[in-house]
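Have a think about this chain, tokens included, and walk me through the fold.
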Amino acid sequence: MLFVGINPGVRSAETGHHFAGYSNRFWKLLWEAGLVPEPITYQDDRRLTEFGFGITNLIARPTPGIDTLSPAEYVAGWKVLERKIKKFKPAVVALVGVTVWRAIVPLLEVDEETRAMLRKSPCPGLQPVTVHGARIHVLPNPSGRNANFSYGEMLEAFRALSQYLTAKNAKGAK
């Protein structure tokens, strides 16, 4: 599975680690949702591969927020991400933030009816579309700046992802 953030924040750029912001709850959510078997922090981001996960960003340029990101950066980032998905073939791509989902919906190779349906429902959870065979799962952005979701709602979305992966792995083991 591949986690995809929007872009690195300033602290992530300074530390060289994903989701390193002081108020970011990504790592806590991974543990509490059962996605990782032990508590880890941003300093352990390279260990995600031990658990079958990769991590990247849609846009590589660090910013204090997303307000200065241009539409062209989203398009260029999607092209790079799509190549990564095609190359590494994750079973699931977890978009960390509804904003990432909204940014890529116009870029997906789907018919207009499907695109219109996808635009109407930018809610967390498994989406009815694949990219190079990878299922898309949208997670709330765990940044402390995200006032759109409570911690409980975030945890519920991360747990749903964990349950999906557990069920998928159980099916594959049979």
About this structure: The first strand starts at residue 2 and ends at 5. The longest helix spans residues 151-173.
